[in-house]
Amino acid sequence: MNLLFLVFLFLLPILVLLRRRTKLSKRVPDPPGSFGIPIIGQSLGLLRAMRVNTAEKWVEARIRKYGPISKLSLFGKPTVFIYGQAANKLVFTSHDSIIANQQTQSIKMIIGERNLLELSGDDHKRVRAALVSFLKPESLKRYVEKMDEEVKEHLEMHWEGKQQVKVLPLMKTLTFNMICSLLFGLERGEERDKLLVCFQNMIEGMWSVPVNLPFTRYNRSLSASARIHNTLKDLLRQKKIELDQNTASPRQNLITSLLGMLNEDGTQVLTEKEIIDNITLVMIAGHDTSSVLITFIIRLLAKDPSVYASVLQEHEEIAKNKLPGHYSLTWEDLSKMKYTWRVAMETLRMVPPVFGGFRKALTDIEYEGYLIPKGWQIFWVTAMTHMDNNIFPEPLKFDPARFENQASIPPYCFIPFGGGPRICPGYEFARIETLVTIHYLVTRFTWKLSADDGFSRDPMPAPTQGLPMQIWPRKLS
Fold this sequence. Notes:
alpha+beta; CATH 1.10.630.10
């Protein structure tokens, strides 16, 4: 009986939405395709393809079968898949009255319903403005030195004196420590270590079928999410006391910055839940995307000697102008790492950390001669324009020169951080993390891959063995 009731609960929204049609739906057909198995739909097929790194082929097969738009069921909801430059523009620029932010039910429940990816209209603008005020370049300049310290301390603890390392787990540790230190003011210790374990459990179920049964990934992620939110509540209370006692500054970290934002009447700009949900979102974005990007840059440098030589030359030029011994990077140093960031952009083009995303149609939309019904989920995939030969000639070739003149790239075709008014507010934070880390890696070490059996997605791309490699210390030329 419980199983039948569960099936009914998941089928009910689909049945209701199928019945809701306006005058537009009478003259415009639904997209081709099918919803597949009740509740499950095509979710398991997509997740399976991601884990064996055939997700792009899975999507391409749909396109060959159905064309540029098709219907399916993902994570318990009726969905329309669209792709291409026009699709990306529709997703990233449509007015909030037409398309709303909405992630899968699993992401919504794990992060929290008041996170930026779920908000629209005035709420989205208010929360986004609060996050951008901390994450904009002018604000982040003062944190370069702190990032510099975190990277050097990490290398001393986990790289120096070693002959072999696994890159991805170490990069995840590094980016998590940066987030804890810079964004939360949570220094190294037992509390941070416990938070890391919870965090790793939480992100495992981000893309999962939202059936909350014992021993499922979704259930484990929800439990870990609850523990993290409780920890963040305690941190908020502690930071509030410190602000009230003037022992902390609103500029000290992201939590104090958000707590210190007040309306004219003295009330906080963001509620406690909004702060917690969006700090969770920033944790995930700053941890996963940056660690994946840095890992795949390191992988690329091991495979392409010419790119490696150019990156090394750029960083040696910066290092040789520093005083011997210990030194720290500055904001001005980062501005000189132009070639390195082009390498990062090309890495993001070929291996975007975010496979795709979801939106929700708030009204019936006519697109490509078909109807996207009100209430349905809209699914878009990042790599479909990144690997389009008409946009990026020879897309399988790694070529950082593509980004020497970014104005030549058609809008809404390079979207690792989204686009338009919905571009990721943490873009600059990721750039600084990446450049500082790569600088110290290439100037202090040389490396060779021990094994490279490709990568899978779960949902972020990850080398199948964590990218093991041999390392040697090096001296500046």
